[in-house]
Amino acid sequence: MRHKTEDVQTLKEKLLVQKKKLVIGIFIFIAVVSCITGFYIYHFKQQTDAKQLEYEAYKYYFQQKFSQAGSLFAHAYEKKKNVVYLINAGYAYSLSGDDKKAIEYLNKVSGMEDENFSNLARFKIAMIYIKNNDKASAIKFLNEILNSKTQTMKDVALFKLAKISDKKEEAQKYYQDLINKFPSSPMVESAKAELQKLETSK
């Protein structure tokens, strides 16, 4: 009889332990679900906020209020790390005449792993430097495009390097490289025309 009482007591204790484990498990599950839900709600809100800022930025952009557009694109990037927001901020600041801020944001893109966007940013930076008569800095960024793994903007970079070169032979080489390496580029006909001018010039 005593043995049966002990068995019942042991069973009760085991059930109590299992009940505690179940309650703890439920609390852990609820906590995990709450964390995951909170994470997705937060990121959804960030994405929604970024999209709203992007929409406002484009409105300013089309109103030619480029400085305000640049600021909103930059703020959108803070909400959602989308490289398009950064490059748009750079272009908008460039159009507003704020070359310092334009280069600041475009430089962030130029250092990213996606070399398609990086080369777009590098080319724009080069154009800003050319506008400001800083040919050495422009050449640096154009050469970075040529040394990148992607083909994006390489034909345009070669054309621009040829145009700003002070040396006839160097310019000819750039035009010839463009024609040979990028035969389907829309820049080929212009390169051929420029090359012909150089060849017939004294």
Number of helices: 9
Distance, first to last CA: 121 Å
Strand content: under 5%
The helix content is over 70%
Which SSEs are present, and which pair or pack?
Blueprint: H1 2-62, H2 66-79, H3 83-96, H4 99-110, H5 115-131, H6 135-146, H7 154-164, H8 168-181, H9 188-200
Descriptive notes:
The chain is mostly helical. 83% of the residues lie in helices and 0% in strands. Helix 8 runs antiparallel to helix 9.
Keywords, separated by commas or semicolons:
single chain; 202 residues; 83% helix; 0% strand
State the gist of this model.
The chain is an all-alpha fold.
